[in-house]
Amino acid sequence: MAKTHDEPAQSSGSLRLEEPETLAGRWSIATAKGECAVVFTNRRIDSANAWAIDDASGCLAGLVPGVVGWRPVPDGIALASAYRRTVALFATGADGWTATLPNGPARLRRG
Question: CA-CA distance, 29 to 54, in Å (whole number)?
Fold first, then answer.
């Protein structure tokens, strides 16, 4: 089965680490309180071991305080603090990328 960039990687025994270039772009985080549009950039933040997130509306800070960047991890997409700490993990699953944030469940999707 062919994988598109809108679908999380499927596992057949081992998890695959997505390349940052395939994940960079516009994303939306959906929660019970609404949508938060962000851009996963390809600007590296070495101190955070992550790539920068553009959050023009400032909505991300309300969902997950302290996030400065993102990075691919074998089981999904991690949101990182300035101190390399994973603040939230959107895990890959049959329903896409999902996480439990401080205010409840969230879904990450392209767009």
Answer: 13
